[in-house]
Amino acid sequence: MNPPVTIIGIAGASGAGKSLLARQLHGRLAEQGIERNVAILHEDYYYRERNDLTFEQREQINYDHPRAFEHALLVEHLDQLKAGQAVDVPQYDYSQHNRKSECLSLQPAGIVILEGILVLHDPAVVERLDLRIFVDVPMDICLTRRLKRDTRERGRSLDSVLTQYEQTVRPMYFEFIAPTKQHADLIVPRGGQNQPALDVLHNHVRQLARTTKTD
Q1: Is 214 a member of any domain?
Q2: Contact 42, 17 (CB under 8 A)
Q3: For residues 5 and 109, is the Cβ–Cβ distance under 8 A?
Q4: Domain CATH code at residue 74
Q5: Is-contact 105 88, C-beta < 8 A?
Q6: Among 9, 56, 62, 207, which one has the highest count of C-beta atoms within 10 angstroms of its own C-beta?
Q7: 169: exposed, middle or buried (Cβ count in 10 Å: 0-12, 13-18, 19+)
Q8: Are 212 and 4 in contact (CB under 8 A)?
């Protein structure tokens, strides 16, 4: 029989601090010597492959709409991880708005932290989550963080980031992301910078890691 696998979902607006919170959790667990039993999975990896479109056409896609993601593949991978199987996770090139040709092998772990803007939107994904977290941060702060991240790390121009934010990011947040707060077990203001909330999460996840540890 395969050991139990716990999947933690972290949702929230783009720039809210979801990835930071996931890394903070992983880092604290590393201090306990159990980081090898915890894996981080990013919803962004599951943006659809769009080799059928030109770069200019891919630039026009609404990447904050649920249709931009291949959630069916994500669900399949979550089920495989739950079953103790490794999965070949797609990799994404933000500068090209498309998947890379190579995949990354993700080994099964006792705890999988899944983070992404719409992690709590798809019912099939939500059904597979054992702990559901929503990172709640004001949109002006999210925009500032997004500007810094996308221009420094993703090869984007300032104008393209602002245009995308105004046309799709902000509207899609209120239409699709904010309503998923109702599915959360825990709402975390300030994201990975909220140390008291991180303390609570760390203690809870540490206990889960201990009970699901396989090595």
Answers
A1: no
A2: no
A3: yes
A4: 3.40.50.300
A5: yes
A6: 9
A7: buried
A8: yes
Amino acid in position 42? H
DSSP states of 151-195: HHHS---HHHHHHHIIIIIHHHIIIIIGGGGGG-SEEEETGGG-H
The whole-angstrom separation of Cα 150 and Cα 32 is 33
pTM of the full structure: 0.89
- Taking alpha carbons only, the member of 139, 56, 47, 141 closest to residue 94 is 47
Q: Which residues contact 164 (CB under 8 A, 6 or more apart)?
A: 63
R_g of the chain, CA atoms, integer Å: 17
Question: What tens digit of pLDDT does each residue of 22-31 get?
Answer: 998 888 877 7
**Containing structural domain, residue 152:** 6-209
Q: Which residue has the tokens 């995949």?
A: 103
Number of Cβ atoms within 10 Å of the Cβ of 189: 14
* Contact of 139 with 177, CB cutoff 8 Å: no
Q: How many CA atoms lie within 13 A of 206 on its CB side?
A: 15
Q: What percent of the chain has pLDDT over 90?
A: 58
How far apart, in Å, do the first and last CA atoms of the chain sit?
15
Angle between helices 18-31 and 195-212 (to 10 degrees): 60
186 vs 11, 123, 189, CA distance in Å?
11, 18, 10
